[in-house]
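Record type: monomer structure entry
Structure origin: computed from sequence
Chain ID: A
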Amino acid sequence: MAFDGKNFDSLFVIRAICITFVARNKFYIMAKDSQVIFDRQTVEFVTVGAEYCKWIEQAEGTPRRQLVDVALKLLPLLYLKASMLPACEVIGDEPLETFVTEESYEVVRLTLADILADRDDYLDVFVSDMKYSDQPITRYISEDLSDIYQDVKDFICLFQSGLNTVMHDALATCQENFRLYWGQKLVNTLRALHEVRYASTEEEEDFPADEIDDDLKPYLTADDDDYHTTND
């Protein structure tokens, strides 16, 4: 095919249209990313997630009953805020960085296990391993809390990067892991924590009932209008 002036002009126009389309599409994606990562529900999940991580990291020396009491307030709030996140999908090609190392994970797990002591283990039937056994599987509250911490902590660290694409993909990954992994783990360990808190007959020292950060108190004391609106 011979290219004359008209064909060249046509190709130039097509190329210009394609460049314009790609630029506009990229701008649209970036704008949509910003809308998701700065959504009110995302900000509230970040707030609760950061408080959960801080609470886990500062758990050493906490009396068992105090640890359990705070967990029973904080975990349902974390679940609620995760379940209300705006839908999003990973758009980047690069794998996300992780921040919780094996050593730091073990420090957290062993600290929690030491606090919970003989009340750490529980029998769980809501696990995939049950299909290979007719007996409940032994699980550990300390391990569940540490697994949740690992995923949420990685998300919080990535979100603090300030890079829109990284923040967006961190949110999408955390949201997916919540659906497939740590959301179920959270509700499983809540049952075990409830047993420790209310079925225990042992006498323990009294402690302040409210050890939640002040930033989270509005979430614990007020009705969540968005939740009711979403579910009406």
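Annotation 1: The chain has two domains: 1-37, 39-231.
Annotation 2: Residues 10-14, 16-30, 222-232 have pLDDT under 50 and may be disordered.
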